[in-house]
Amino acid sequence: MPDHDVSPMPEHRAPQSDLETADPAQSDSALAVPAPNAGQAQLPAPVATATYVATADAASPIDPQIRAFLLAMLEEMPPGWHYLARERMLGFGGREDDDWTPMCGPLRVESLVRDGHGRNWSRRIRFLDRDGILRHVTIAEEEMIAGPRRVCAQLVSAGLAIEGNRDYIVDMLRRWPVRARTRLVSQPGWQQAGDTPVFVLPDGSVLGRFSPHEDAIELSITRPAAPPCGSLEGWKDSIGQLALGNPAIICAISAALTGPLLKFAGIDTLGLNFHARTSSGKTTALVAALSCMAPREALATWNATNTGLELTCLQANDGALLLDEFPAQPSTEIIAALYSTGNGTGRLRGNRKLALEKTTHWRTAMLSTSERPIAAMLASARIDMPAGLSVRLIDIPARSWTHGIFENLHGYASGHALSEAIRDAAGRHHGHALPAFVQRLIEHHAIIATTVPALIERLQPDMLAAVGLTVDSPDGPVQRVLKRLALIAATGEIAARLGVLPWPQNTASVALTEIARLWHRAHAAQPPTSAEAMAHRLTGWLRANRHRLLRPGAVLGDNDVGWIDTNWIYLGAEALRTEVASGMQAERAVKLLREAGILVPGGERVSSQYKLPRSIDPDRNRAYRLDRSMLEMG
């Protein structure tokens, strides 16, 4: 946590004239602003605001938030301290001018702050700055002990007027009676307030109810958010309805709402990448998804965030991260960010004490676009796709429907016209669906934890059947991708049942089943780019061709491809080159299988093959030796 955090509050300006008294028993009269007396020097009239209008001949009301702040300060001040209204200063000593020593502007310690582990304690100090604006600053307790000079320097820098002894001021801050407690959290998403779940949005807003005795929860680094526009009903009647009959839009909107359900599904990272050449409508899918929480102008690109993607992911914890236009020539920073994004973890770092800091983690649903599959783009740049990333970032061919990404034009003349209608609707209605969904999840939190896994378990078999597999098929990349697509479908179904999405029952599940079929067809046609994917391809090929493997010592026929014994499969070079490695370089396939620990060379420096013993092949030919224990043969 930083040593201090200065955040401007909403602009509440105090009147630029005297406060009558510092006695809290005289509350309203103490805070009243008298009309100036004749013959006295006139102070400049304050700036007019919506809550305060200066007049020359009548008392002016004080902003309610400033009044509440001053009353609380007057009630809580440590013994020996008084507030001289005429000077707008806290001071030490008696109430009369000749007994009173001015120290600093009006302030109060409103809360003790610590992190979620009960460490790194700080004091949240609210004060009126020299312009009469309410602000706050958070100062670490260790700073209070380290020295008054540093504490007062932070307060002065933040805008507090200081005239007196620094030691007295810091002593006052340490003796200030504080009942309120604030728990500082490092990322948005689900938090626990006692027995009650609450949800912190990236802008620091907290959804849910707090018990009076529970700590407040505050986000340490907030992301400014544009205010919602339009209404949820307006969004449902426009974007929600235009999504019907368009599986890609249904998928994108459901995925944008999936973040809050990731923890219930036991999934850390879920990503979709819509890929197609230009003018396909793929960016419009992201605009529709983004409208669930923000305006279309908030859509970022990969290049715009390449140096801060880890922080962006952290701020999207339990939410959605949308990035347009994955670059054809990705930078080193983007590649590193892509790896950490897919893994859901930040980089390991050291601190100034040479100790390793705790690695950051996040749960995020990410939506992206590119002109080609990300796996293919990395392969073109001779960059290996990390194992597991193709499962966490699922490439979806966007130009798969009659009008690019659209199937149902809803009466519009073209896909372009429908795209413009969605973008226009997103400008008029945005920022409602995600908060409304989270609020309903909180209201039904007790059953959501069991509903999500049950829905995934019900939906996944339909997706498996759509790609030609069964629930008994061995676990692998396909199963894990389909689990994520089933979670997106479950999100859409739950949001529709809770009244957030205007879709009939099974709308999301039918759309995501179609997405699963399209993904699997494209996936099967793509050459593997990771060791895991290569292992999966080999496993499927061996399952289909096991009858072509003979017992040791048998003579191979024209259709036979090798031998099999208890521990090993000895695969002929021709079968690996022309069948297993179909569509890719054989050397690349061999390299990936070696990385997977499946292909075990025979010890020769220049060859990955194994010279067979006579007990296997009387002619002692070379073959590729495959470790059966590493294969998912079933």
Q: Mind sketching the topology for me?
A:
Layout: E1 6-13, H1 27-31, H2 64-76, E2 81-84, E3 89-93, E4 100-104, E5 107-115, E6 122-128, E7 133-140, H3 141-146, H4 148-158, H5 166-175, E8 181-185, E9 189-193, E10 196-200, E11 206-207, E12 216-219, H6 232-242, H7 247-256, H8 262-265, E13 269-275, H9 282-290, E14 300-301, H10 309-315, E15 319-324, H11 332-343, E16 364-370, H12 374-380, H13 389-392, E17 393-397, H14 415-428, H15 433-443, H16 445-466, H17 477-497, H18 507-525, H19 531-545, E18 549-550, E19 562-564, E20 568-571, H20 573-580, H21 586-595, E21 610-611, E22 622-627
Parallel strand pairs: 5-8, 8-12, 13-16, 13-17, 14-15, 15-16, 18-19
Antiparallel strand pairs: 1-7, 2-3, 3-4, 5-6, 6-7, 9-10, 10-11, 19-20, 20-22, 21-22
Give a quick rundown of the structure.
The protein is α/β, with parallel strands linked by helices. It is built from 21 helices and 22 strands.
How would you sum up this structure, described in words?
- The chain has 634 residues and is of the alpha/beta class.
- The protein contains 21 helices and 22 strands.
- The strands form 5 sheets. Strands 1-7-6-5-8-12 form a 6-stranded mixed sheet. Strands 14-15-16-13-17 form a 5-stranded parallel sheet, sandwiched between helices. The protein has a 5-stranded mixed sheet with strand order 18-19-20-22-21.
- A hairpin with a 6-residue loop joins strand 3 (89-93) and strand 4.
- The chain is elongated and about 115 Å long.
- The two termini are 51 Å apart.
- Mean pLDDT is 84; it is low at 1-59 and 348-357.
